[in-house]
Amino acid sequence: xxxxxxxxxxxxxxxxxxxxxxxxxxxxxxxxxSYTPQSLDEKAGTWKTYLLKKPDETxxxxxxxxxxxxxxxxxxxxxxxxxxxxxxxxxxxxxxxxGATIRWNEIARExxxxxxxxxxxxxxxxxxxxxxxxxxxYPQFPNSNSLYASRVLAxxxxxxxxxxxxxxxxxxxxxxxxxxxxxxxxxPLIEKTDLPSFPSEDAALAxxxxxxxxxxxxxxxxxxxxxxxxxxxxxxxxxxxxxxxLKMGAFIGDAVSKAMLTYANLDGMxxxxxxxxLAEQKTASTALGIKKQWESLANPxxxxxxxxxxxxxxxxxxxxxxxxxxxxxxxxxxxxxxKTEIEELISIGKNATKEQLQTASLWDDGLNTYAPAGxxxxxxxxxxxxxxxxxxxIARTYALLGGALLDAGIACWETKYFYHLxxxxxxxxxxxLNVPNSPGFTSEHATFAGSAATLLGGIFPYKxxxxxxxxxxxxxxxxxxxxxxxxxxELGLTHxxxxxxxxxxxxxxxxxxxxxxxx
Amino acid sequence: MKNVxxxxxxxxxxxxxxxxxxxxILLPKKGLFLHLSYSESRFDSYxxxxxxxxxxxIGKISKQIANAHxxxxxxxxxxxxxxxxxxxxxxxxxxxxxxxxxxxxxxxLKFSILDPVKPFSVVLSGTVTKPLNSYSLGNQILALGLGSxxxxxxxxxxxxxxxxxxxxxxxxxxxxxxxxxxxxxxxxNNELIYSxxxxxxxxxxxxxxxxxxxxxxxxxxFGDRATSLxxxxxxxxxxxxxxxxxxxxxxxxxxxxxxxxxxFTVKASQVLAGLNTPKSLNISAGVFFQLSGRNNDRFEx
Lengths: 519, 301
Prior knowledge:
The structure holds 2 protein chains of 2 kinds.
Chain A: H1 2-20, H2 69-83, H3 87-96, H4 100-115, H5 146-174, H6 179-182, H7 201-216, H8 221-237, H9 243-265, H10 277-287, H11 319-325, H12 336-351, H13 354-362, H14 371-386, H15 391-419, H16 444-459, H17 464-481, H18 486-508
Helix pairs in contact in A: 3-8, 4-5, 4-7, 4-14, 5-7, 5-9, 5-14, 5-15, 7-8, 7-9, 13-17, 14-15, 14-16, 15-16, 15-18, 16-17, 16-18, 17-18
Chain B: E1 32-43, E2 45-48, E3 51-54, E4 61-73, E5 78-91, E6 99-102, E7 104-112, E8 120-131, E9 150-160, E10 165-176, E11 179-180, E12 186-188, E13 191-193, E14 197-198, E15 203-213, E16 217-228, E17 247-259, E18 262-275, E19 281-292
């Protein structure tokens, strides 16, 4: 009997342990919520645009007066719309009111991660090339690698910036009273603002973001259509815009996207994957006295990642500057200095600390991620919201960061394929990371980081030390991970810092008066 | 004795310490038993969702595990057990770092509901596991484990004829705790999750076995099936991840030979079908020792 009691206790114990398992496994993500911007940036209509020659190039007509019959009808339609707000509408309002610039950037990062996948080898032993006309068929188009990611985020952000400058210009030019001023029956569901609602910045952002992202991710048109619809309808449901505000905002967005996509079509990306340039590049590399060239480590050998991307058009400087900034390798393969760097990598392979390996993993931003560019946009977003930036000012930050990252990618690629220097893995150095399919000199992660950290340090001067440290961490991370020699990282970082300073020059001259730090 | 741990990670679901899973045998009171084993599993292909493929970028993977397993009879009907595996996972690609270290410590108890000497055995067991070190989780092809604490329970049934032939069945459940990653963002179902937390799915498993258990010799054929209760699929050309829904069916043979207080075990199993899991072949061999217990007791292990 006593023995049985013990057994019963054991059963109870097992049952208890067992039931403890069914605990909640929900993963919580940080939520963004709306805030009142520290400034409306009333003068932003005079900030320098990138694509538009003038902010009024879009050519908007004067809006109807609030005393007009048309406006009154719009106003009544808005009230009716607000009567039908469902829970789903409220969720949508909460989502988009956190800031449309940020939301569209998040959407872009998500798509980048989704398409940041290598193509599989087919039965014939080849890596098929994605077809932009059949984006949903394997292999999916695009392959959203680190370069594609920086280009997507740059063009998206630059187009958003121009669209908002133009929107701001008209907002303050026409100064049409806001819906709740024109009709006091309208009680907006989110905080009212003194920012004139005609034309709508949300509609401009939705149009420009939809157009650019649909072009960059042609397989996502249905998804983006829904997002764009939600991004606009929330303004109606929340009582923030009448229909004509939205219509004219979209008009500006469409005009700017046209300019952006024309630029994108001619930026040289079409030739970026020209594999025929490789032979010439390798000959030139040998002529420089380089004993061993980079080779793909994939089996079978994977075509080089965009070997001609170095000739894509840079944003903040021209090709002459690009070449003048190109780093000169500190060590060449199989020299004495090179042997020291190999030994260092062997030693790191044996003795890397847990923290070093974590740093390597934290900044890897490889396949299936939002890539280094996405990581830096995430970092920028964090500070933009902390500083309570307006949509306008966020767009400016994003556009500058986008340009800095775009140039970093291009300049790094020009360097990589100019020298064609090998990866440490060609000499037996081991790595836990995925080895990117491109030459080792220089590290693109370090270049992106140097450029982004420099630009962000100019926008947020009180954080410049912290960003510089992040830049060094990224540079070191590639050494800890073993995918680069030390000089690949260090010279990549300095290269990036120079590239970022060109973005800062643009920032200083954009008439916003927001960046005065000279690097 | 046993380890209830068959539904362990998809990468070591086939590891050495699964070899005693699901038996209905208990040690007598004060019996102490030590089993040392070595196992190796190999694969060069895995199911991306339900499509079996080779991925040349990962190479041929080899996972070796040295395991120490100890059991103790608190009474004739209650046994305690614990095991500690040391693993080394490597790829044949020369530039891939191997992962090596202690895997997850497991321990638990087993309770015989009916008198253990009866032909019909009904046994309940519970196991908890805990990762001993914070091994890298990023690359699940080579990672030592899921890094998750788990808790599992199992019901084991067996009928043994006088001839020594037996038939058995078991079913169990394993709960896994949320895991912290090195990074604060990851992709799941093609969406970005801005968190360093990821939930490995809970799973249930069941199996059947037929065999012969004599005085010194045992041979058994078994089939096991494990199913995750949630989780996502490996997407196009992606690698396995902690959040994956992992299912597998495997079959194998187990044999044991015992002379007095020392015995040997050999086990082989092959994953036959699966979802988001490697198609691996596992072979293990072990030696065991009866460390205490009354002299005339045969350890039916």
